[in-house]
């Protein structure tokens, strides 16, 4: 079935009101400036997701772990007799839990942006469309939105999960909610907007190709915009393979928890951003390291005991990391979503390697069991000044800075737990060693000089003969 809109009233015992005033929704766009971001250079390779849901590609396909919900969606602005399809953004940026597109509507007097973000714990997505009249006179416009539903098993499911059948879409005038169902299975998608807006079903002029078993139905909202007025239209999208009521519950929670979900995501990213914060000269690796923190969580040393094996060729490890991090930020969401944790593997996935290997390349290794932090500077040739701040190893917060050139190495460490050991190991050719400004004698082993200390502040300066 291609287009199907059946108007059937359904009594729902859930609250579907949008929480908070319009101005709060507009402020979400502004708060993006405080988040780390990367440009999306190819919309076809875009992905944004969590362990529950994934939105991907230029058409913005939406998939749960078990089922695909949409094959894509379209949005448009109608001004008088002209319809402008919002299908090619002039600016596209990705954030740890969100993305933003800006659409240039030439000579229309309008600015349009789309923000989409993923809830931490709900299999749903929220889209926000900001429409601003930048003219000095009022405007009457229509906003149109239309998804292409294609309910079918996701790529993670095998043939025993169910077979794809025709989809049917129902629109409930009472609640303003669209629901779609696979005719042979208990698979549902649901979407709607805020009760602040009056919408009516329509078919957009900007529709995409619909799959053989799919269906499509959209809505339009009429807006009267005063000069320089901005309105934000939210669209909430949910789905479930457990039935209609579950999908509707998720949709209601998305609407109710709009700002809570945003704040929780924002606070988590802000915390991770400040934790194990590195400074290195390789900006691409630095970005991938940070993105691995946001997507996987901060790496912990608690599995390992004793010093790490020395790196014989740091430049080779650096080249390995550079290869590993190519297109990392563009691909990590989709890779994480489709990763099968139960499948045996001979090597850890890339997102699990980036953080520990980068720290190891910096010469830093934590032995949480024996309460010793090992620092062995053996940096790539072009790394002269590096640091890591707020590195937590169990209950100990450590700051480490390393400055290195051909004839001198300086290592400075501060930590919150004074009794934790700090083992600094330097190449044996650096024979003149000062600890906190005082020259000390030391022994060599396996080509390295080892200085083992405790305290909340350690500074080692070493010179070659």
List keywords for this structure.
single chain; 465 residues; alpha+beta; Beta-galactosidase, Chain A, domain 5; Maltose phosphorylase, domain 3; 2 domains; ten-stranded mixed beta sheet; nine-stranded antiparallel beta sheet; 7 helices; elongated
Describe the structure.
With 465 residues, the protein is an alpha+beta fold. The protein has 2 domains: 6-267, Beta-galactosidase, Chain A, domain 5 (Distorted Sandwich), CATH 2.70.98; 276-463, Maltose phosphorylase, domain 3 (Sandwich). The chain has 7 helices and 31 strands. It has helices at 22-31, 244-256, 258-274, 283-296, 314-324, 328-337, 350-361, and strands spanning 6-7, 38-39, 47-49, 53-56, 61-64, 67-79, 82-85, 91-94, 98-105, 110-118, 124-133, 139-153, 167-172, 177-182, 188-193, 199-202, 215-216, 218-225, 230-240, 277-279, 364-367, 372-375, 385-393, 396-404, 408-415, 421-427, 432-435, 438-440, 444-445, 448-453, 457-463. It has a 10-stranded mixed sheet with strand order 1-13-14-15-19-11-10-9-8-2. Strands 3, 4, 5, 6, 7, 12, 16, 17 and 18 form a 9-stranded antiparallel sheet that branches. Strands 20-23-24-25-31-27-28 form a 7-stranded antiparallel sheet, with no helix packed on it. A hairpin with a 3-residue loop joins strand 3 and strand 4 (53-56). The model is unreliable at 1-22 (pLDDT under 50).
Uncertain segments are 1-22
Shape: elongated
CATH homologous superfamily designation of the largest domain: Glycoside hydrolase, family 65, N-terminal domain
CATH C-level category of the largest domain: Mainly Beta
Number of helix segments?
A: 7
Main-sheet strand order equals 1-13-14-15-19-11-10-9-8-2
Share of helical residues: 10-25%
Oligomer: single chain
Q: From the alpha-carbon coordinates, what is the Rg to the nearest angstrom?
A: 27 Å
- The count of strands amounts to 31
What do the pLDDT scores average to?
90
* Portion in strands: 35-45%
Structural class assignment? alpha+beta
CATH topology of the largest domain: Beta-galactosidase, Chain A, domain 5
Beginning-to-end CA distance, first to last residue: 82 Å
What's the number of domains? 2
CATH architectural name of the largest domain? Distorted Sandwich
Largest sheet: 10 strands, mixed
């Amino acid at each position: 079935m291609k287009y199907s809109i059946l108007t059937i009233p359904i009594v729902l015992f859930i609250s579907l009101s949008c929480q908070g005033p319009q101005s709060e929704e507009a402020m979400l766009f502004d708060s993006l400036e405080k988040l780390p971001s990367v440009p999306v250079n190819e919309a076809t390779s875009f992905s944004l997701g969590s362990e529950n849901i994934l939105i991907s590609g230029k058409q913005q396909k939406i998939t749960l772990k078990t089922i695909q919900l949409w094959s894509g969606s379209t949005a448009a602005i109608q001004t008088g007799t002209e319809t402008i399809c919002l299908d090619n953004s002039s600016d596209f940026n990705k954030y740890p839990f969100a993305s933003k597109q800006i659409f240039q509507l030439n000579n229309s007097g309008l600015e349009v942006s789309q923000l989409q973000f993923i809830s931490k714990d709900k299999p749903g997505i929220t889209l926000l469309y900001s429409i601003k009249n930048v003219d000095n006179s009022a405007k009457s416009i229509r906003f149109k939105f239309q998804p292409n539903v294609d309910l079918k098993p996701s790529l993670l499911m095998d043939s025993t999960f169910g077979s794809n059948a025709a989809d049917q879409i129902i629109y409930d005038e009472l609640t303003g909610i669209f629901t779609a169902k696979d005719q042979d299975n208990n698979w549902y998608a649901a979407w709607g907007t805020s009760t602040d807006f009056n919408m009516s079903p329509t078919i957009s002029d900007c529709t995409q190709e619909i799959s053989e078993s799919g269906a499509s139905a959209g809505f339009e909202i009429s807006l009267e915009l005063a000069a320089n007025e901005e309105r934000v239209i939210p669209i909430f999208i949910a789905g479930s393979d457990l039935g209609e009521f579950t999908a509707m519950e998720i949709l209601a929670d998305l609407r109710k928890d709009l700002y809570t979900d945003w704040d929780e995501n924002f606070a988590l990213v802000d915390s991770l951003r400040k934790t194990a914060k590195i400074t290195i000269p390789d900006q691409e690796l630095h970005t991938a390291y940070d993105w691995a923190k946001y997507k996987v969580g901060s790496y912990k040393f608690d599995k390992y005991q004793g010093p790490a094996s020395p790196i014989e060729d740091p430049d080779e490890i650096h080249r390995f990391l550079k290869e590993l991090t190519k297109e990392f930020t563009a691909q990590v969401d989709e890779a994480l979503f489709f990763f099968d944790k139960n499948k045996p593997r001979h090597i850890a996935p890339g997102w699990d390697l980036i953080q520990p290997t980068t720290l190891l390349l910096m010469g830093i290794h934590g032995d949480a069991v024996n309460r010793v932090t090992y620092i062995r500077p053996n940096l790539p040739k072009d790394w002269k000044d590096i640091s890591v701040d707020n590195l937590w190893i169990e209950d100990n917060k450590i700051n480490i800075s390393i400055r290195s050139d051909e004839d001198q190495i300086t290592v400075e460490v501060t930590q919150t737990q004074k009794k934790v050991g700090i083992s600094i190991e330097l190449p044996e050719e650096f024979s003149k060693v000062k600890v906190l400004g005082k020259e000390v004698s030391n022994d060599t082993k396996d080509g390295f000089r080892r200085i083992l200390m405790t305290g909340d502040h350690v500074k080692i300066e070493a010179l070659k003969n």
